[in-house]
Amino acid sequence: MSKITVAVLVGSLRKESYNRRLAKALEKLLPEGWRFDYLRIDDLPLYNQDFDQDYPAEGTRLKQAVEAADALLVVTPEYNRSFPGVLKNALDIGSRPWGTNSFNGKPGAALGASPGAPGTSMAQQHLRNVLLYLGVRLMGVPEAYVQFKEDRIDAEGNILHDDTRKFLQDYVDKFVAWVGQCRKA
Amino acid sequence: MSKITVAVLVGSLRKESYNRRLAKALEKLLPEGWRFDYLRIDDLPLYNQDFDQDYPAEGTRLKQAVEAADALLVVTPEYNRSFPGVLKNALDIGSRPWGTNSFNGKPGAALGASPGAPGTSMAQQHLRNVLLYLGVRLMGVPEAYVQFKEDRIDAEGNILHDDTRKFLQDYVDKFVAWVGQCRKA
Questions:
Q1: Secondary structure element (H or E) that encloses residue A163, with its range
Q2: What is the pTM of this model?
Q3: B94 vs A133: CA distance, rounded Å
Q4: Assembly ipTM
Q5: Is residue A125 within 8 Å of A72, Cβ to Cβ?
Q6: From chain A, which residues contact B within 8 Å (Cβ)?
Q7: E strands, A18-127, where?
Q8: Which of A74, A82, A181, B103 pairs with A30 at a CA distance of 20 to 30 A?
Q9: Which residues in B lie closer than 8 A to residue A46 (C-beta atoms)?
Q10: pLDDT for B58-85, tens place per residue?
Q11: Distance between CA atoms of A26 and A112, rounded to whole angstroms?
């Protein structure tokens, strides 16, 4: 049986990204038969409505990967009290050309990490707003506003802290159940 | 005497952009001694925190243009119930490297146009939130949620409709007064 694929968008491009580490930690907690597909967003062009006549190859690649996936997971840092432009650009690219929104109907969730607890929560408020408009069947709870601490998740996504593991395992279990329900409905 | 320069960010890149037409219309209504400087944002790289070690030249160019200006005007369409990723990316780029936020303290305003009236209003809510965080001394009222109609402003920004001219002239006059007050304060 083929695996259930979750398309993952990580909003930060930096090498040592906390949010990428968080995504890797979640990946290790997936049940058998599930996998993450990390989508590349750093090489997308800045969305221009004139593209709709002749869509750039990187945009088509992103759209196909989203469409091929069974679910969507968006992991966002906070930049300037919202989510990053690079992530919004990926959502804009994937939502067009007009009438071909690749996110529509996809079961999904959004979470994120920031050095302080409020940061990612503000970013996620804007992000959830956009994802719902895009037709993502968005998990409302549990929420995950992760205050990132270096000693809790290492660079490979190994979880070094029991309460963190318990919290993230619960998140993954409920996400898996949410996606399962959406797929049956 | 040198002119008072308003740095203008237009959130849409398309050639026939309504928001660019709106900006051009506003430009024609400026008083003597004022000018618009349209900042280029289509060639900026997607912001990556690793840039902070060695900032890209296009980013430095944007920052210098913002810093050289006396005021800021942001003209935004709505994409997916928020403002475009390309515009957020420009704000992210201009706000960094850490501790060198180029927008801080700049008198400014945000407005926009969309085919339906609610579109730009939703984009502007997110945008205002970010601009305030960036330390822009943001004009609260008047607001301008412009429902764009082809027969009201032509491609060169000529205003073809008396009520539109009156509305936009009032907006420009109050923006000019706002910037003047901020410069004195």
A1: helix A162-184
A2: 0.96
A3: 28
A4: 0.95
A5: no
A6: 12-15, 17, 41-42, 44, 46-50, 79-93, 95, 126, 129-130, 133-134
A7: 34-38, 71-75, 107-114
A8: A82
A9: 13, 41-42, 44, 46, 85-86, 89
A10: 999 999 999 999 999 999 999 999 999 9
A11: 11
